[in-house]
Amino acid sequence: MAERWRPETHTFHLPEGEMTITLKDVAILTGLPISGDAIIGPTTKPEGGWGPLILRELGFDMPTTTPIQGRGHPPLNAGQVSVPWLVYHIQQEVEINDETPEEQVERYARIYLIGLVGGFLFPDKSNRWIQGIWLPLLTGDWDAIGEKSWGSAVLAGVYRELCTCSKVGVKQAGAEMFILQLWVWEHLPMFAPIDPRPYRRNDDELNFLQNRGGGGSF
């Protein structure tokens, strides 16, 4: 699909014509909002780095190293937060029950959102680092977070990545390529995996279809 992508028009040039991924596709395939405030913000780390922001909003400080499978792993690197460190932290400390204070539940929810947005919707090619620029967008008011146009940002990221990986010499694709995969399966079913357990109508449905007025195939 990258070989069929034209950066000038942001469309796939196929034998049948041009096609592209639209906002409607993103909304249907992911459920992300495509209206609301734009995803904008500073692209540089704040004064003092990301450590104070994480400590203030998430409730824990960033250590210099964290043991990951017996090895020291830096949780911060040039404005990026380590995905393995977040996973390790959640596995070691997150335990929610009926008696968990609301503040702690919200803190864990923000950790999950950071991992979801930075590690899944907008990952880097290594899938090991979350860009720190997402932190301020996910540590504010809950309603404000949900009212942002996340679907538009995801689509813009897909376009940018396709324009990059369609260049000669580029061998990898990152970012939101799962959107492309779902879109291809939906619109170009010849590339979709075959369902090993196809839907089978029961006897009542078959009798109804066979005996309905006018007959016909199904």
Write the layout of secondary structure elements.
Elements lengths: L4 E2 L4 E4 L2 E3 L3 H8 L20 H8 L7 E3 L2 E3 L2 E2 L2 E3 H11 L8 H20 L7 E3 L3 H4 L3 H5 L3 H16 L11 H11 L15 H9 L7
Antiparallel strand pairs: 1-2, 2-3, 4-5, 6-7, 7-8
Helix pairs in contact: 1-7, 3-4
What does this 3D model show about the protein?
The chain is built from 9 helices and 8 strands. By secondary structure, the chain is an alpha+beta fold. Strands 1-2-3 form a 3-stranded antiparallel beta sheet, with no helix packed on it. It is globular. The relative contact order is 0.15. Residues 213-218 have low confidence and may be disordered.
Quick summary:
Pfam families: PMD. The protein is an alpha+beta fold and 218 residues long.
Please bin the fraction of helical residues: 40-55%
* Total of DSSP H or I helical runs spanning 4+ residues: 9
What best-fitting shape do the alpha-carbon axes yield? Answer: globular
Number of strands: 8
Low-pLDDT windows of residues: 213-218
Percentage of residues in DSSP E strands: 5-15%
The pLDDT mean sits at 76
Rg to the nearest angstrom? Answer: 22 Å
How far the N terminus sits from the C terminus, by CA atoms, comes to 33 Å
Organism: Linum tenue
Pfam families: PMD (PF10536)
Domain Aminotransferase-like plant mobile: 1-193
Protein name: Aminotransferase-like plant mobile domain-containing protein
